[in-house]
Amino acid sequence: MLDRKFILDNAELVKKNCSDRGVVVDVDRFTTLESLRKEKQQHLEDLNRRANDISKQIGKSKSPDEKLKFVEEGRDVREMTTATKCELDEISDESDKIHRAIPNMAHPNAPIGADDQANLEFALGKTEIPKFDFEPKDHVEIAEKLDLIDFDGGARVAGSGFYFLKNEAVLLEIALQRYAVELLMKSGFTPMTTPDLARNEVLQGIGFNPRGNETQIYSVENSDLSLIATAEITLGGLLANKTVDAEELPLRFCGISHCFRTEAGAAGRASRGIYRVHQFTKIEMFAFTLPEQSDAMHQELLQIECQVFDGLGIPYRIVDTATGDLGAPAYRKYDLEGWMPGRNAYGEVTSTSNCTDYQARRLNARYKAKGEKGTRFLHTLNGTAIAISRALVAILELYQQADGSVKIPSALQKYVGFDKISR
RNA sequence: GGAGAGGUGGCAGAGUGGUCUAUUGCGCGGGUUUGCUAAACCCGUGGGCUUGUAAAGGCUCCGCAGGUUCAAAUCCUGUCCUCUCCGCCA
Length: 423
What we know:
Strand content: 15-25%
Largest sheet: 7 strands, mixed
CATH topology of the largest domain: BirA Bifunctional Protein, domain 2
């Protein structure tokens, strides 16, 4: 959420931001409701003060007659209080609903535009696309030939979009995790395996909607839990309703979790193989920072993502996501798109967002600086270190050989224990 | 899953319906004393919202959400969490 006061003081900026992002919200209605809300709030406080006075009088009064007089007055005040509270609740509900729908402000340098204008490239992120002297196969064919993924079994057990990794692919999954976690630990991240489920309240704090037609989230029946779509949810929830000392910041966490996504509405889109699936394993980076640290931290997360993919020898480009394609909490977002020869195209392999204080305000995650009065909201950032399924697509397709075998990226060989998969 | 106990400020721990202010100790900040340190003593010590240029006020928060009452940390209901015991289990 944005700061209420900020919205009221900058209504025009907020409206412009909403239209840049393609989000339809009635900001004017919000402003109207807020002034109404303030008025009612003031009235309610006056009544409360009166009620407090009366009960103090009763506590002090000696004669029963005097007492009775105050009790009756107190009763009247309570009736008014109840009525006012009711009106206030109605106004607040409507106002909060709009408030929650207003997206974060975008970074001034984020490209303005819709989805299809998103692919602005950074020169530094551009790496060489390899040439094959044979017709490269896609990962589904490769995996079938080498017996690495069981799609039929996945479908039988859990439905389309699920799969079993088999044989060397299992070792590759483990190796990729080891590789990424070690790299992150060296960079000062605290590794965590997180719950794969979280309370809906936490999901909402991070910006996910557990219900509704377009939800990406599987929810667990008869409980307020959902399967997480990313460890961003659980790691962000770590500091919900907490206040940390400013000296402890920034905090860097590395979360290992499974990710579950319904992929509602994604049917028919390019989703062959394990590129778009309902479950995968992911190593996620998450940082809590001071406001003045978050831009630099965002660059740091991006650099680490580059380091991870440079180390794996996967060519990629960096996308500075356009406003129309930013999720509501994101202030700025960079995606890494890895080259996937089987698709003959780039495919998204990572994503890193600076969410400034947008998530923290909903989560009520604060910090306190020494010598400063009160508390302020943290900034939160997230980034993919490695999403196993997408990375596997890139590795299988990039490292395939003319004879049908697949070489193991040298950075992973020490973890898998061999340098080639063949049959 | 069953039975019981509990959740109060940074921490410990009082407070079972009303004295206008949630005891007290520790910790923390400042001060006095002191050759330095310590001790002792004194003063001050939460968050959120809000009025005000400020000084200074007001409202709210005792896990969370409701309820009863003129009045709730205290009584009632629900819920979450922690601990102990029992059962089950990788």
